[in-house]
Every structure is written in C-alpha cells, then in structure tokens.
Amino acid sequence: IEHPNTVKKLLQNNVAYYIEPSDQQKVAKCPLPTSIRQLSSVTVPDLKYDYSALEPVISAEIMQIHHTKHHQAYVTNFNVAMEKYKEAEIKGDLATMIALQGAIKFNGGGHVNHSMFWDMLCAPKDFEPPSGDIEAAINAEFGSLASLQEKFSASAVGVQGSGWGWLGLNKASGKLVIGTTPNQDPCSTLGLVPLLGIDVWEHAYYLQYKNVRPDYLKAVWSVVNWKDVGARYTSNK
Length: 237
Prior knowledge:
Elements: E1 8-12, E2 15-19, E3 27-31, H1 60-91, H2 94-99, H3 101-119, H4 132-142, H5 145-157, E4 163-170, E5 175-182, E6 193-199, H6 206-209, H7 213-220, H8 226-236
Helix pairs in contact: 1-3, 4-8, 5-7
C-alpha cells in the first residue's frame, strides 16, 4: 500500500491509517487488501461415523490416531504457517512469504486430502458398489470395477515413500484418470478433479498391515464410499 504523503503508517484492526504531514491530526483511512486480512483458521472436521465403524478393514486405533493426531497436526501447522504468511505479507517480507510456501502446500494439502478421505470411506455394512453415472464411466474407461481396482492398486503400491493414490476426472476430456501424488500434494496438482483418494502413508495402515501396503490396498476397497465418489463425479462432469 502506498500513499504519496505518508510519514507514518499505523495498523489497527487490519486497517491502515496514514498520518499526513500536512495535518498531523488528519488521518487518511485505507482498508488493507483482502489478501492480507484476517483469515479464518481451518479445523479438523468431525467424522460421520465412529472410529470403529471401518473395522475389520481399518482398526479403531488407526482411525483415531489418524484423525486426532495426524490430521490435527496438518491443521495446526497450516494455521501457524498462514498466520506467519499474513504477517510477512503485511510487512512486505517477500523472502519469508516464499520460504513459507512449502509448509503451506504440505500442511494445507494434508488438510484438504484428509477432509475428503474421511468422506470417501464408509462402514462395511454401508458399502454399495458404484452405480449410475460413475459405474458407466468406470466401465467405459476401465472395462470393469475389478480392472479399475487392479490398475489403481498397482499404481498406489508404486508410490515411493509416502503419498496418495487417486481416481480423478479430467474435465477437459471427460475421462477418468488414475494418478498418484507424493507427500500431501493434492489431486488438483495433477490437473484432475479428485473423486477417490486413498492415503498410502504408512500411518494410514502400519499398525494393522505393517509394511505390506498391497494387503491394505486390497482390503480398503470394501470400505470405499462409492456414493460419495459418484456424487463428486456427477457434480463435476
């Protein structure tokens, strides 16, 4: 923000007050740009089911730790990073703003990915196979649900270290696409609309499946919430 006659700038309640040399008692009031106003903190969403609801596929212990510890850590660290970013932006501290990009991407991605992930799962008793538009799209692109599962699992198994497996929609072509992202990179970094994401960080399965990721990926299909996946597809196609 610039003012041609500014000799002093005060920040109060996210409003910049400029004291002009022509009249030290006159104050020119200029609201700050929206980009650096107070941002609302993000929070961990409540689950729509009990921690034990996904058993025996995913244990209650894993779900509780995953939700209350790992997701919470991403939220906490994202909020801290954004607060620092806001302060740096107000000061015009470009070096700090650039340095914070990694933390914002990692923790923000962790929050975005997990917030979707919880809704993409359901209790085994509530499982229903894909139907309607999403079933037709799966059959058109992969031939069958079994073929999709095989290709998706093979792709997700191959993620080196930690990351996510995705079924996304390429809006330009209208086609379903399987992809992976490292760390907490969102599906959007692939240029896709996320329809189904499976967390393949070890914290998502290690207490139950140890280091055998293929076993976890084989089992997780029985708790995929295809109603949620289908709704995402229909609303974005």
